[in-house]
């Protein structure tokens, strides 16, 4: 089991983190070329972290299996490969990110000056991670924070204890403690961290409910936050999804709904289908479910619900829904260890319990609609700002209309989920689904302050002199 960090030690850990950061800045201050030295130090930590993860790959896979039966394949596809991509992308681009960016300023006053934006490190930052992608969503922000020059305190999810321990081991072995420390714990320990005034940034990934608690605590100390929260992401299959594409569309929707057993922040959470497509969707759903899972057992259905209450909650919803449940034909009985057989529920109403919150389970409710406007009105009324939105339609004008009215964190047209792995595009939510972006340059921006630096040559005084007294109307016309 996971040993929580004693609450009494937590303030010292934060002070140590801030002190380590300050000492590093003094070290840079004393070097001949601080930026070059800073780059070298950051890169060394990032490279060590990359190899540290690589060296412990198998332990990570085993830990995730022991925490919630995640398969090796899934851990690689949805967690380790994206993590490596992000890390290598950061290492490759860091020399560019760290250089001040020249701005071509259009005000005449600065025509003869140099105007630059420099992204400066913040200090000591807190990263709080969720359980569902416990490695990626912890180590990706940690790497971004290091790359941006900060010291980090990581609070992994206590719901995945084995993974939390492996990550601590990797970090201890590969990264200098002056850069990263780990605090284990649950509500009390995290509460102590978020109320500490010495952090310079909090990067939180998790539920919207806890996001509010984090934002409130941070606001007291004016600590900036990035909040990567949840939400119920809708999928539209409109009347303009071509019949020939419907099967592929469903495969893509199910990939989004059933990966990690549905425990994905940007999962396809519910499916809105135009009534003209419903019969075909029903027929093809059966076909695709049988193709995906010709056999249904603990070997083919891996990832479990994270804990008993999550499991019971889903079973209750499935028992109470009035919709028609479709599962792979081979699914005969319940599976052990909190596993749930992928289930598509047809003919769901808006007042069904499956439509209340994120399902976070391999369950996809399908709501038929007649009028697109009505369907959109319900989306806006019930779940106004989803983290993602997926639209399957061949008609550009229709796609544009949906995108105009529904403001989501991200969006895919004719697919699901994959926008999250685009390394050069921002990822983040809007309002209840989050604040701030990361990935690529946006990860760097999340952990730095953009400082404008204007350098004035002395020789431009003949122009700049107009600002000094004595004033005259003649000076105004210059
Ligand atoms: P959670 O909010 O329960 O926990 C996240 C973290 O907050 C954990 O480290 C936990 O220890 C801590 N925490 C829990 N209760 C707390 C409290 N009262 N005070 C302070 N800290 C507390 O989330 P989870 O169940 O681990 O993750 C699932 C949620 O995260 C879903 O809502 C999902 O949509 C969201 N999520 C969002 C993203 C994203 O990128 N936007 C990614 C993954 C998950």
TrEMBL record:
Signal peptide span: none
UniProt GO cellular component terms: lipid droplet; mitochondrial outer membrane
An annotated GO BP: aldehyde catabolic process
InterPro entries: Ald_DH/histidinol_DH, Ald_DH_C, Ald_DH_CS_CYS, Ald_DH_CS_GLU, Ald_DH_N, Aldehyde_DH_dom, Aldehyde_DH_NAD(P)
Active site: 228, 265
Domain Aldehyde dehydrogenase: 36-453
Keyword line: Membrane, Oxidoreductase, Transmembrane, Transmembrane helix
Gene Ontology terms for molecular function: 4-hydroxybenzaldehyde dehydrogenase (NAD+) activity; carboxylate reductase activity
Family that this chain belongs to: Belongs to the aldehyde dehydrogenase family.
Name of the protein described by the UniProt record: Aldehyde dehydrogenase
Organism of this sequence: Lachancea lanzarotensis
């Amino acid at each position: 089991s996971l040993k929580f960090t004693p609450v009494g030690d937590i303030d010292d850990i934060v002070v140590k983190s801030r002190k380590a950061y300050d000492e590093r800045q003094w070290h840079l201050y004393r070097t001949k070329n601080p930026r070059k030295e800073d780059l070298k130090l950051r890169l060394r930590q990032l490279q060590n972290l990359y190899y540290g993860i690589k060296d412990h790959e198998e332990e990570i896979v085993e830990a995730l299996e022991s925490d919630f039966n995640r398969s090796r394949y899934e851990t690689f596809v949805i967690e380790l490969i994206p993590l490596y991509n992000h890390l290598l992308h950061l290492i490759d681009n860091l020399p560019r990110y760290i250089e001040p960016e020249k701005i071509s300023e259009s005000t005449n006053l600065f025509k003869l000056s140099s105007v630059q934006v420099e992204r400066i490190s913040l200090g000591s930052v807190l990263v709080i991670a969720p359980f569902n992608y416990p490695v990626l969503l912890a180590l990706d922000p940690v790497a971004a924070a290091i790359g941006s020059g900060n010291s980090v305190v990581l609070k992994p999810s206590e719901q995945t204890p084995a993974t939390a321990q492996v990550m601590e081991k990797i970090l201890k072995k590969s990264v200098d403690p002056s850069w990263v420390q780990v605090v284990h714990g649950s509500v009390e320990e995290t509460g102590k961290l978020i109320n500490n005034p010495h952090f310079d940034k909090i990067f939180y990934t998790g539920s919207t409910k806890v996001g509010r608690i984090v934002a409130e605590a941070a606001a007291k100390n004016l600590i900036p936050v990035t909040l990567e929260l949840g939400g119920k992401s809708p999928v539209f299959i409109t009347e303009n999804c071509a019949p020939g594409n419907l099967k592929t569309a469903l495969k893509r929707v199910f990939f989004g709904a059933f990966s990690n057993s549905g425990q994905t922040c940007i999962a396809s959470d519910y499916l809105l289908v135009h009534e003209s497509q419903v019969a075909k969707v029903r027929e093809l759903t059966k076909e695709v479910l049988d193709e995906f899972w010709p056999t249904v057992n603990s070997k083919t259905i891996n990832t479990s619900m994270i804990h008993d209450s999550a499991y019971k909650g889903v079973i209750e919803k499935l028992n109470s829904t009035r919709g028609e449940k479709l599962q792979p034909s081979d699914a005969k009985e319940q599976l052990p260890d909190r596993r749930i057989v992928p289930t598509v529920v047809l003919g769901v109403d808006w007042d069904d319990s499956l439509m209340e919150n994120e399902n976070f389970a391999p369950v996809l409710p399908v709501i038929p609609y007649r009028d697109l406007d009505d369907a959109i009105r319900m989306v806006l009324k019930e779940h106004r700002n989803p983290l993602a939105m997926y639209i399957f339609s061949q008609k550009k004008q229709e796609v544009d209309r949906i995108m105009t009215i529904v403001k989501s964190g991200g969006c895919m047209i004719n697919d699901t989920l994959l926008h999250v792995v685009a390394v050069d595009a921002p990822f983040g939510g809007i309002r209840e689904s989050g604040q701030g972006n990361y990935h690529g340059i946006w990860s760097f921006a999340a952990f730095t302050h953009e400082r404008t630096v204007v350098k004035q040559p002395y020789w431009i005084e003949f122009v700049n002199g107009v600002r000094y007294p004595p004033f005259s109307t003649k000076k105004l016309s210059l």
